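Worked problem 6 (solution included).
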Amino acid sequence: MMWVLQQHAQVTLLFLAVAEPQDARDLGLLQLRCVFHALRVPADAQQEAKIFEQTCHAGSFDVCIFQRLDVHHLLAVMPPGIRAVLDAHDLLSDRYESQLALGMTPDPAPTREREMAMLAQYDVVLLIQQDDYRRAAATLGSSALLVPHPVEFKRRDIRPELCRLGMVASQAPANLDGLDWFADAVWHRISLPAQMHLFGWISSEWRPQVGAFQRHGFVHDFNLVWSGMDVAVNPVRWGSGLKIKSVEALGNGLPLVTTSEGARGLMDGAGEA
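Solution. The predicted structure is:
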């Protein structure tokens, strides 16, 4: 989204955390051009709201994009005259239900009715998955906008000997949980000689004592990521929305091994893939 926006608008990014040196390096590697504001010290919700309000008054903004419903509390202090857009990613109520189905103690989440009432407070709500959009549009009407995740990768040749499995992921709890399950319940059952490669921030967060998996950390060039594996693995067991790692693996022409949750929203191949 940032790559596209910077081609058409002046962008200010408010990072509601203390920026580490690595964060600035990552922005540079990704070639993002924006005015970047980060917190100097950790802040609670009330302090975040004050900083957000000050940022809005200091600039002249036409649109504010809220990255996920997690920052919904900031909407209450946004000055009038600015259009509010929510980049929803997924529906939190779905995430709650999928955790409950696994017998987990779900993360706090609004009910479906409450979530739709929150979404209705935005001028535009962006949804990347057809089923999420269908349900949201039934309540929100034209303010719901379907914006599927595009993939424009060159299809890669599949090597004759498959040995490099790979996972691209952040340190989000669903990714950590899925990798735990894969390592404990699946990995020892693979009879072929294989390597497991981890790309992204999950590399440093997930069980550092496990040395069998090779860790590459944040890689700024997606070509290096997807060419570094023969088979993509997405072992997430719970969640909601669309799994971008699954979309991008398929967009690169890689075989993808995933769960029913990892394939959520990818229904074109149901019964055939």
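Discussion: The chain has a mean pLDDT of 91.
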